[in-house]
C-alpha cells in the first residue's frame, strides 16, 4: 500500500480567539502555517462571555473557509472545555495596551487570568502540551502560569519574543537591502518590553561570498548600537501609534513561527529567540522566563551556549533581567 497513513489531528487551543490576534491566527493554523501542510488540526477557541457572539462568528467563518486540514472547531467560554486534550496552547486572551501605556500597565488584569487558566491547562490539557504565552506582559504571564501549574514541565511553558526577533531581522534586511531570509541569528535577550536587548553581535547575512557578519556589513556601529536597538524595542509602540491598535498580523505570524520551529525544529546553523525558563545560562537568574537564543530538535528547545558577551551587551542583558525580577514581584502583589 503506497498510500501514506493520514496523520492524527493535533488539537490547538487559542485563547482570546475573538480578538484581533486570534482573528489573524486561526486561519494561519488551519492552513498549515504552524504545524505543516500535511498536519490536520482541531482548533479550540476560548473567549469570555461578552465576546461569545463574536467568537461564534469566527467559528462560522472557519467553516466557510472550507480548510482541508481543519478537522474540527470547539468554540467556548468554558476554560475546562477549551483546554480538554489540547496538545498546543496559545495564550492570547487578555487586554492589550493602548497608546502611552507600558506593557506592565496591563499587568493586574492579565496576570490574574494566567493564574486562573493555569489550573485548567494543568488538569485538562494532553500530557506534554506545549504552551506559548502571547498576552502581555508575556514573560511574567508565562511565569505566573508556570508557578500555578506546577505539574506542567517548565520546558513546556514559553513566551513570545519571536516577533521582536523577526522585527530585528526586518530592520537589518531593510538597512542592507537584502532579503530578510538572508539574515539570521539575531538575538532578543530578556523581556518582551522596551528593556529587551536586540543583539546583532552574532548575526550573519548571506552574500555572494558566503555568510558575513552583520557588524562587518553594517559599518555604522553607531546605528547598530543606538537606533537599531531602540527601533526594535519601540516597534510595538510605533504600531499602536500608527494603527491605534496593537500589532496583530505580525504577532500571529510570529506565534506560528515559534510553534513551527519548536515542534518541527530549527534549520541547521540557525537559532531563534524564545522566552524560556532560565536555567542560569549567561548568568541570568534561574527561574525567570527570559528570552534566549535557542535551537530546537525533536520538539525540545535548548539554549545556545558559549556565545561571547561583551561589556555593552552584559549591561543590557542584566538590565532587562532586573525588570523581570521587578515584574515578578509586582505580579505577586497584584495577585494578593
Ligand atoms: P484583543 O483585545 O483584540 O483580544 C483579546 C481577546 O482576549 C478579547 O477577545 C478578549 O475578550 C479576550 N479575553 C479577555 N480575557 C479573557 C480570558 N480570561 N479568557 C479568554 N479570553 C479572554 O487583543 P489582541 O490585540 O488580540 O492582543 C492580545 C494580547 O496579546 C494583548 O495582551 C497584547 O498586548 C498581546 N500582544 C503580545 C505580543 C507579543 O509579541 N508577545 C504581540 C502583540 C500583542
Ligand atoms: C507588540 O510588541 O507589538 C505587542 O507586545 C503589543 C504592545 O503592547 O507593544
Automatic annotation (TrEMBL):
Enzyme superclass (EC): oxidoreductase
Membrane-spanning residues: 12-30
Binding site for NAD(+): 16-22, 47, 110, 134-136
The Lactate/malate dehydrogenase C-terminal domain, residue ranges: 161-329
BP terms from Gene Ontology: malate metabolic process; tricarboxylic acid cycle
Annotated positions binding substrate: 97, 103, 136, 167
Active-site residues, record numbering mapped to chain: 192
Single annotated GO MF: L-malate dehydrogenase (NAD+) activity
Family matches, as Gene3D superfamilies: Lactate dehydrogenase/glycoside hydrolase, family 4, C-terminal, NAD(P)-binding Rossmann-like Domain
Pfam families: Ldh_1_C (PF02866), Ldh_1_N (PF00056)
UniProt keyword annotations, A-Z: Membrane, NAD, Oxidoreductase, Transmembrane, Transmembrane helix, Tricarboxylic acid cycle
Xref: PROSITE patterns: MDH
Catalysed conversion reaction: (S)-malate + NAD(+) = oxaloacetate + NADH + H(+)
EC number, UniProt record: 1.1.1.37
Domain Lactate/malate dehydrogenase N-terminal: 10-157
Assigned protein family: Belongs to the LDH/MDH superfamily. MDH type 2 family.
Protein name per Swiss-Prot or TrEMBL: Malate dehydrogenase
Species of the source: Oldenlandia corymbosa var. corymbosa
Amino acid at each position: 500500500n503506497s498510500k501514506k497513513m493520514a496523520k492524527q489531528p493535533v488539537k490547538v487551543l487559542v485563547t482570546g480567539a475573538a480578538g484581533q490576534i486570534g482573528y489573524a491566527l486561526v486561519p494561519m493554523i488551519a492552513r498549515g502555517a504552524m504545524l505543516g501542510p500535511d498536519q490536520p488540526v482541531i482548533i479550540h477557541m476560548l473567549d469570555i462571555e461578552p465576546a461569545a457572539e463574536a467568537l461564534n462568528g469566527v467559528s462560522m467563518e472557519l467553516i466557510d473557509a472550507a480548510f482541508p486540514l481543519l478537522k474540527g472547531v470547539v468554540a467556548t467560554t468554558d476554560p475546562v472545555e477549551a483546554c480538554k486534550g489540547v496538545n498546543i496552547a496559545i495564550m492570547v486572551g487578555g487586554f492589550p495596551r493602548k497608546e502611552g501605556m507600558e506593557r506592565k500597565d496591563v499587568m493586574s488584569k492579565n496576570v490574574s487570568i494566567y493564574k486562573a487558566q493555569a489550573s485548567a491547562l494543568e488538569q485538562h490539557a494532553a500530557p506534554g502540551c506545549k504552551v506559548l504565552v502571547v498576552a502581555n506582559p508575556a514573560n511574567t504571564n508565562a511565569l505566573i502560569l508556570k508557578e500555578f501549574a506546577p505539574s506542567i514541565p517548565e520546558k513546556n511553558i514559553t513566551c513570545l519574543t519571536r516577533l521582536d526577533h523577526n522585527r530585528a531581522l526586518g530592520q537589518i534586511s531593510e538597512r542592507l537591502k537584502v532579503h530578510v531570509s538572508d539574515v539570521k541569528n539575531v538575538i532578543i535577550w530578556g523581556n518582551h518590553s522596551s528593556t529587551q536587548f536586540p543583539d546583532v553581535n552574532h548575526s550573519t547575512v548571506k552574500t555572494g561570498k558566503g555568510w558575513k557578519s552583520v557588524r562587518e556589513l553594517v559599518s555604522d556601529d553607531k546605528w547598530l548600537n543606538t537606533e537599531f536597538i531602540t527601533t526594535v524595542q519601540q516597534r510595538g509602540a510605533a504600531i499602536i501609534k500608527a494603527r491605534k491598535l496593537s500589532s496583530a498580523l505580525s504577532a500571529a505570524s510570529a506565534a506560528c513561527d515559534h510553534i513551527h520551529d519548536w515542534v518541527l525544529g530549527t534549520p541547521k546553523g540557525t537559532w531563534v529567540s524564545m522566552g524560556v525558563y532560565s536555567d542560569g545560562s549567561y548568568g541570568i537568574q534561574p527561574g525567570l522566563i527570559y528570552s534566549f537564543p535557542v535551537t530546537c530538535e525533536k520538539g525540545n528547545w535548548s539554549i545556545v551556549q558559549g556565545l561571547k558577551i561583551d561589556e555593552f551587551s552584559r549591561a543590557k542583558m542584566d538590565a532587562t533581567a532586573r525588570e523581570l525580577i521587578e515584574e515578578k514581584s509586582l505580579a505577586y502583589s497584584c495577585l494578593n
